[in-house]
Amino acid sequence: MKPAILVARAIFPEVLSRLEEYFEVEPNQDDVVFTPVELAAKLKGKVGALTTASAKINIELLQQLPELKMVANMAVGYDNFDLAACTTHGVMDSNSPDVLNETTADFGWALLMATARRVTESEHWLRAGQWTKWRYDYFLGPDVHGSTLGIIGMGRIGQAIARRSMGFDMKVVYYNRSRLGTEQEAYANNAEYVSKEELLRQADHVMLVLPYFPASHHTIGEAELALMKPTATLINVARGGIVDDVALIAALRAKRIAAAGLDVFENEPKFNPDFLTLQNVVLTPHIASASEATRRAMANRAADNLIAGLASGKADGRPLDWLNP
Ligand code: DGY
User: Ligand 1 pocket by C-beta < 6 Å: which residues?
Assistant: First the structure.
């Protein structure tokens, strides 16, 4: 008999078909976002699950699921997993890294350009029928070319963002848990390693690309926003919770920074509605990796992980992107 798995959210039909070759699959093509109680009920008797960041795999859930052996996230981020609890319960975890690096970097740039050059704000104004003449000072914003880009979180996506800045003649400063090697720094547009505070003081545009974990909670709060230039922009393509959204709203409202571009929010999708009252913010619904090809690649990578971990026919099958220590 094939091992039973849950695909916890809707997914590309061809990926479902691939999984069905190896597993007894319970799909969720209606894309119901399960409550913790519903998720536990759906996972009863399953050995594996393909999840997205909306599924919390924590100790309360694991205690109810002695048969569960593996959870594969269709995401590079895995802050929805309690990794230590999974390890204790013998549950293997995987994510879907790398396949989304370039697409997410493209989107970081899209948000940066839209935010600095006020693309969505001016489009809303035009659509509202307010465009009656050209004026020298309509929608002035900071330049992107020739400016200083500060990247917090210089992993593979951060480095891909830095490489793109070469075409804009930018200086790159970065802050990361550990410093990159000399060759990596050179490849990332000669990025210069600085403290977080120095980065916030120097950067014209601050880009957040770090993973969420308890120590990165509110990496950007009131104190950090106060260090930024009043002309600076803040771009978040990382995770909600890395920015203190209440502090950011206050800073944007008081024009303590020029603008922000946000793809992720605290408590998303129920984000702070005060953002909607501000003109100087570009808001997108967590779509940084959402190119057709990349989302397919992420889904396939999550499926590859489940197949390697649970259907290899070997007792010591392991996911390709195995996360447990
Ligand atoms: C990721 O891969 O972590 C994206 O943010 C989608 O969740």
Answer: 53, 75-77, 100, 289
